[in-house]
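Appendix B: complex inputs.
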Amino acid sequence: MMAVMTAWLGPHAAFIVAAYVVSVLVLGALIGWIVLDRRQLDRKLTELEARGIRRRSDRPPSGAGGAP
Amino acid sequence: MALIDLANPTRFLALSGRLLPWLAGLTALLLAAGLAMAFTAPDDYQQGATVKIMFIHVPFAWLAMFVWGVMSLSALGTLVWRHPLADVAARAAAPLGAAFTLLCLVTGSLWGRPMWGAYWVWDARLTSVLVLFIMYCGVIALWRAIDDPSRAARVAAVITLVGAINLPIIKFSVDWWNTLHQPASVVRVGGPAVDPSLLWPLLVMAVALTLLFVTLHLAAMRNEILRRRLRTLSLMRADAVAA
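Resulting structure:
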């Protein structure tokens, strides 16, 4: 594998491959963190809403139709 | 829709939700094109194939500074206009900026070893970028250390604006001091000094990675808005239990 890389990218292939692999790993971790964070937040928000805890702006209007 | 309408987090969530899939698709397309151009570009006459590291290192360096610039504008939004999304934007951008700065340092080291014979030298450009990385870590720690979100926002905004002084130091360090790091070769008086066969892959990768930042920033801002809603609901629940 490394021999193929060296034939393609020259004597410093290991440094080039390492730079791209590290970049993919860090950016992948960043994307994964954002996606997992969103799932966790959605789950916690759903739990609270299931217990009837809602923001005022999300609550259905109380006494609708009561006023003329 | 006027820009001021986006000050409403609910409207921002709706608009960004529609925009995100398109941005993600465009980012993936441009990244694929940029990588294809990078790996079919000719070798540099001095650097050989290690010039391929430059196609990611340079955009990471630009983004490291650009993200702090975004955070500085957001800091102004927090302190001057009290924009409801300003602190959300700054807080969501900080981990992304830290990651891009770390990648700039790591890819630069991996380029430096075969080209300079050293992973690291205490030259003005490298040191000022390391300082930027430490500043990112510091401001992230600060947000986490202060419980009151509005107080944390104001303190972090002041620190961010003070830290912005490092941006011109990074940019002009290669002109002000005698550094091992080469001077500017793309954004310079007299135009780019890079051959078009290497400049185009670099520019496409820069646009692609900037779009990646915009996409991730919007997604992280949406998370931050939901985190604040979760905090509000948790406080309401605690109040309800206490009553």
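Chain A has a mean pLDDT of 84.
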